[in-house]
Amino acid sequence: xxxxxxxxxxxxxxxxxxxxxxxxxxxxxxxxxxxxxxxxxxxxxxxxxxxxxxxxxxxxxxxxxxxxxxxxxxxxxxxxxxxxxxxxxxxxxxxxxxxxxxxxxxxxxxxxxxxxxxxxxxxxxxxxxxxxxxxxxxxxxxxxxxxxxxxxxxxxxxxxxxxxxxxxxxxxxxxxxxxxxxxxxxxxxxxxxxxxxxxxxxxxxxxxxxxxxxxxxxxxxxxxxxxxxxxxxxxxxxxxxxxxxxxxxxxxxxxxxxxxxxxxxxxxxxxxxxxxxxxxxxxxxxxxxxxxxxxxxxxxxxxxxxxxxxxxxxxxxxxxxxxxxxxxxxxxxxxxxxxxxxxxxxxxxxxxxxxxxxxxxxxxxxxxxxxxxxxxxxx
Length: 379
Description:
The chain has helices at residues 4-8, 16-30, 32-35, 40-53, 56-63, 84-92, 125-130, 275-280, 339-351, 367-377, and strands at residues 117-123, 132-143, 159-160, 169-176, 179-186, 195-196, 209-220, 229-232, 248-254, 261-263, 266-274, 282-288, 291-297, 306-309, 325-332. It folds into three domains: 4-102, Helix Hairpins (Orthogonal Bundle); 117-142 and 205-254, Urease metallochaperone UreE, N-terminal domain (HSP40/DNAj peptide-binding domain); 261-377, Urease metallochaperone UreE, N-terminal domain (HSP40/DNAj peptide-binding domain, Sandwich). By secondary structure, the protein is an alpha+beta fold. Strands 10-11-15-14 form a four-stranded mixed β-sheet.
């Protein structure tokens, strides 16, 4: 990527005024009328650097590592574009052929691509697990049914601009640092289009498009999460004057589930296990997104133990397979024992020699505290 800061000889922290001052100085020195035709290429480089660094949005893209000129080769037509030849014309003037071999800029096209549209869709965790088809409501621009995108009232058509004779640009003499020069600018009468519309379409006010509410069906794949955007190409707003449609983006919002927690492609839940089941072992049933599943609780299970159910997690986005479901076991100690139940436990304690249990500290790396800590770290 070109180092535009080095081209202009300024620091990356340079202010807008410093960048402009550096550009003006180099432009005067390298102007082909001053330094000769051999300086044209160097002047192009300086103009290209100023095109990027002199625009706040383009400079921000460049500072993020993206050259805004790279995708279009340094050119962008139409009244919204602003390339190095535009800089040359506006700063030094320029009717007729440019010093870079290009021809005078002609009329701009009214036809413009429609803008991209963003709409949100809220889905449940289960829908994120398996994917779902959803309909979303969105206001979009459509090609005007009355003028079919021509922007003109029925029975009329655009007329050649009388001020610029259809050229889209006008020339005028102006004074500059180099003396009197001929400058070229978009025609103020037609806006640079070369034609005017005396009778705009009454239904679209001469825009060639109208707005209405649409119901759009979108297939949401498994594995999406909050922030995922699904692109529907050419499903956005219709362009001005019959231009092509933009894209429609559907941004996903995933609702929080009451039972299951998502961590990437895996699901986690907590199963309360009675104290007796933890001691003796049992097979318990868990209701999952795939229906009831058997969870084997081994004898002597401790609080914080985990049982993994493979392949019952979230579908992997743009990949095959699914994550896993992790069932965390929480041993439930009863607090509402009857006299009979308390007596039975006392008898069990006597049989196990635990009437007066000793305080044995667990070794480092063992015990429920460390198991819970390890489980937390695995999130």
